[in-house]
Amino acid sequence: MPAIIKDGAIIEDGWVRLTAEQIEQDGLPADGDLIVPLSVWKSQREAIAARSGRTTVCLAPGDEPAEIADDLAGLPLVAVYFPAFRDGRGYSYARELRTRYHYEGEIRAVGDVLRDQLFYMQRVGFNAFQIRADRDIHDALQGLKVFSVTYQGDVKDPRPIYRRR
Amino acid sequence: MYVYQDYDRQLLTERVAQFRDQTRRFLAGELTDEEFLPLRLQNGLYIQRYAPMLRVSVPYGMLNSTQLRTLGHIARHWDKGYGHVSTRQNVQFNWPALEDVPDILAKLAEVEMHAIQTSGNCIRNVTTDEFAGIDAAEIEDPRPWCEIIRQWATFNPEFAYLPRKFKIAVNAVPAKDPALIGVHDIGVQIVHREGETGFAILAGGGLGRTPMIGEVIGEFVAWPHLLSYLEAILRVYNKYGNRDNKYKARIKTLVKALGVEKFRELTEAEFAEMKDGPMTLTAEEVERMRGFFSEPPYDTKATDQPTALTDALGSNKAFNRWYHTNVRAHRQPGYAAVTLTLKKTGRAPGDITDDEFDAVADLADQYSFGEARTTHQQNMVLGDVRQDQLFSLWQALDALGFATPNFKLLTDIVACPGGDFCSLANAKSIPIAEAIQRHFDDMDYLHDLGELDLNISGCMNACGHHHIGHIGILGVDKKGREYYQITLGGRGDKVTQIGEKLGPSFDTDDVVPVIARLIDLYVEQRRPDELFIDTYERIGIEPFKERAYASNN
């Protein structure tokens, strides 16, 4: 089972993420925990409901978090996909899920997820990270503990520094 | 000046450790070029034509003498003996070795300086008027607000990977734009309404390939909500800004594409959610920040036009000339602000040597409460000089070559490093600046011409702000040869205005003769008291066009 970082620790994880193309080609697998793109999430609701395994959604850049607002209460996790680590839209999506929709489940960064971005990611609301497969997950873990000081509020503590003094 | 607290220092220490480790991993091959790129850029480090370039942040242009000496030390030990003041008030070093950069950052951190977010697709150094706290016309000191914005922007986790770079400027002078807020991604204009401080917030201005003047998004944002409003704009930009084409990725393209109404609607929706939330500024915090920028201990007995000054003005012609160009009135009676022009002919505009950093530091200590400022016109300012000491300061500056009396005149040229250093440039800037300075070397003539902003950029990125020069020169590449396009009528003085293209571009050798013909036409056509820009605005571009291309047939 592949490993991910969750809540600061490395754990085994069984969720499988499929692309829209994979699903179009092979259909939705009947069992197992599955992460599907927003397009599939919206268009195949009945098929998803009929699965025996759990299913959740992955937001890609350009998707609107608002589109899953009504589903959030029943979702154990939401994935946010980074096609390239330099595409920062996912940071605003995670923030929006936490602060606008008060989502308290797992928010998992997937795709081009690397050590040097993790500190910022956890501050905007990600609590799980699927590190890019060619990188050492133990090494990446160090990315969570870069700074002990922050000026802004964040999802853990919404108070900026001038309200913490 | 803002004084670092323990947590500010701790943050810098941790940043240096982070970057040291990132550099180590890059050199060890654990980080690819592509992965290291945004990390080093967000630490001000470019890989340039000959060597890396390190851009050190000078928040809103304020430096103390200790910091100046450290910049001198860096120039001496890690560079080739000089640094460069940029058009965004930062200081750049053109020759550091990549592996030395962590040590340079550690040295900077000792004096509360850094290179954080001086490049990359993130929120850059916040800038303001170099005469902040000095100009009697400003409605309040903009620097406390700059510092509040700086802290909010520093390592803001949501906005570290924006579509493109993002520049914010603050202006506190009514009906003028000394901070050029009209051509920033966000411009913050301080306004007072019924005695309360608030802000008119512009978005979507910028220079570069498609110059635009920003649009008013928030007409009056009351002071407690400044950061919430900025955050709302940034969130809209981060979500919807173009990421496919870097030339369409600035916020100006988004504002234009959505339309101001729609952009405002999205911003207001985000703002409504954050308003009165934890980001709301407290009166205590604003007062604390204002406390850092309180007046220096002025001599309250000092008076305007003391005898020591008027005597020297009457007896020394060179001092008199310098006084009338480089010295500026001060809100405090008996004081003046002095511009040190880094524009001596033969020197790349904005360049300053290691020893000169030290010399400016000494002069700041002696004459100006230990503080100096960098300006977006690539000069430096000693902001608080007693008028009876102007003559002795002038003598010291003259000996150093900083008293060229050309502030705001034709030879006070703003130029980017250009093709001599920058790998983005299409053409050289510095030799063009020098050729113009050599041609116009008659000080009497220059003073007769009066104020004239001439700006040179080596490429469309417009670091030399050519769009807002009364005369703008842009380097372009045509089949591997350097050509120069000229624009007229840009303004970054009282108002911000984008210049108009004169016509086809000119060969390198034609630039100086063309500039000379444009100036000749102005001299022939001007009415009494008309500056170049006034004559241009009265007679329009056509006569200039005819004259410029007259002998090029």
UniProtKB/TrEMBL annotation, chain A:
Organism name: Alcanivorax quisquiliarum
A Pfam entry, by short name: DUF934
Alphabetical list of InterPro entries matching this protein: UCP030820
Superkingdom assignment: Bacteria
Full protein name: DUF934 domain-containing protein
UniProtKB/TrEMBL annotation, chain B:
Protein's recorded name: Nitrite/sulfite reductase
Protein source organism: Alcanivorax quisquiliarum
Domain Nitrite/Sulfite reductase ferredoxin-like: 53-111, 337-399
SUPFAM superfamilies reported for this sequence: Nitrite and sulphite reductase 4Fe-4S domain-like, Nitrite/Sulfite reductase N-terminal domain-like
PANTHER family registered for this protein in UniProt: BLR3264 PROTEIN (PTHR32439:SF9), FERREDOXIN--NITRITE REDUCTASE, CHLOROPLASTIC (PTHR32439)
InterPro entries recorded: NIR_SIR_4Fe-4S, NiRdtase/SiRdtase_haem-b_fer, Nit/Sulf_reduc_fer-like_dom_sf, NO2/SO3_Rdtase_4Fe4S_dom, NO2/SO3_Rdtase_4Fe4S_sf, NO2/SO3_Rdtase_FeS/sirohaem_BS
Keyword annotations of the record: 4Fe-4S, Heme, Iron, Iron-sulfur, Metal-binding, Oxidoreductase
The keyword Secreted is assigned to this record: no
Gene3D superfamilies: Sulfite Reductase Hemoprotein, domain 1 (3.30.413.10), Sulfite Reductase Hemoprotein,Domain 2 (3.90.480.10)
Coiled coil: none
Domain Nitrite/sulphite reductase 4Fe-4S span(s) in chain numbering: 119-272, 411-547
Xref: Pfam families: NIR_SIR (PF01077), NIR_SIR_ferr (PF03460)
